Amino acid sequence: MYTRIAEFQSTSKVNCDMIIAFFQNVMIPRNIKNGQLSCEVYRVSDTTGFVISCFKNKNDASKIMKIMADEVNEVKGNTKIKFIEGERVFKIEG
Predict the structure, then answer these.
(1) Which of 16, 32, 51, 56 sits 20 to 30 Å CA-CA off 25?
(2) pLDDT by position in tens, the chain (length 94)
């Protein structure tokens, strides 16, 4: 399992709402169709949040990043985005 976390900070609440709507209605459904296993979006404040995306492996994560590269660059105009990613070491559930 490979996971990518994207932290985002928008310039306004309206901009953040638009980005979340884009994630929900366009980007994430397309990514799921192309091999992404799952995605969760969390809102931290009116203008910040993070996205947790899971993939089978790093190759699948890289494939999805290539598909959305242009859109990520376009979104970066009004939104600061920071990515961290890596292999899952373990998961514990209750």
Answers:
(1) 56
(2) 999 999 999 999 999 999 999 999 999 999 999 999 999 999 999 999 999 999 999 999 999 999 988 888 777 777 899 999 999 999 899 9
